[in-house]
Amino acid sequence: MTKYDHLDQLFSSLDITAFLSECELARFSNGTSPIKTYCDNNGLVLSAISDREFLRWIVETMLPLENCRIFEVGSGTGYFAALLGQLCGPAGAVYGCEIIPSLYERSIHNRYLTELGNVFVHCGDFINILPKLGIFDVLIATSSLSRIPRAVIDACGPEGGRLAFPIEIPGGGDCFTIFERRGDHLFVKSAKLSVSVPSTGTYSQRAFWARPITDLLPNIERLGRITISSMEEFRDPIRDSLSLRSYLFFHESRFEAVNFGAGNLSRAADMGFGLFDIAEESAVLRRGNTTVAVGHRGLELAAIFSSLQEDWNKAKRISLADFRYTINLSERRDIELVPAMRSQVEWSP
After folding, report:
1. DSSP letters along 69-87, please?
2. Three-class secondary structure of residue 120 per DSSP
3. For the whole model, what pTM was predicted?
4. 143: exposed, middle or buried (C-beta count within 10 Å: 0-12, 13-18, 19+)?
5. Which of 40, 56, 81, 196 has the least C-beta neighbours within 10 A?
6. For the chain, how big is the Rg over CA atoms in Å?
7. Angle between the N-to-C axes of helices 298-314 and 237-251, in degrees from 0 to 180, rounded to the nearest 10
8. Helix (H), strand (E), coil (C) string for 246-305
9. Cα four-point dihedral sign 33, 37, 42, 46
10. Rounded to whole angstroms, how far apart are CA atoms 179 and 164?
11. Res 349: pLDDT
């Protein structure tokens, strides 16, 4: 039996319905799509069981996991922790951390986790719990981050330790990246565009997703605007938007992701992005497949936007997931990911 046959058996034998409430079961189908397990009062999803094909990709990339000490940030109802507990075996251990009390309670009473005996779940903010637990071979977060906390770096084994987490892309979505540590450096092993839940607690970065449009252009309702019909439509709305936004974010300091609604980040239809000249009250804004030039410099910004999009097309719609880079860990502080990546990633078509 190959290691991949073993994964097939593991994913098929672990009953996902045992990690769902009655309400969640009513919405569940036998497919691999993500399953929401907690939303806030505005409907923003803060916890979900990820797409099982996606979880399998994470596991395959992280192998071998046998005998490993594993830490999971945001363990939710415990499904992924149970998978990891079986993969690391009785000589290994999985430590989960869940900040939402109701999810924590569901996980510690789950029969799969109690029967395994090597999965230990803590309730609270991971940044307070992790330093007390020692060094780990693997640290995984399935909620998005824009920086690596120093506590995570210190807890990652210095030679061969692995980190896996989604790097936020402004406007929603992320690039799930798997790193390997060698001394004072992290090396990218693999990456994939994804849509993860936002972080909560100390490292919550919701403002990073999309700023309210009125924060950038307070007088937008009084500004002139022109709809531009020549902008190319996205073939794959989710992937192409993610890819283009990651490209623009690294290329153009005037790039911003914005929210056209009332601050409810759960509505994808309210999200947009573009280039802004705040001082001149001008912008070019893309929302879905609609592009609008705003203010007296809007058409000038639209020309720049169009040129950047053409370069992105020439580069075969390249995204952050296509690059391999190194992050220096020698400074004793949190690692801000954007500056660390901008200094290395070359986006030439």
Report:
1. EEEEE--TTSHHHHHHHHH
2. strand
3. 0.89
4. buried
5. 40
6. 21
7. 110
8. HHHHHHCCCEEEEECCCCCCCCHHHEEEEEEECCCCEEEEEECCEEEEECCCHHHHHHHH
9. negative
10. 6
11. 45
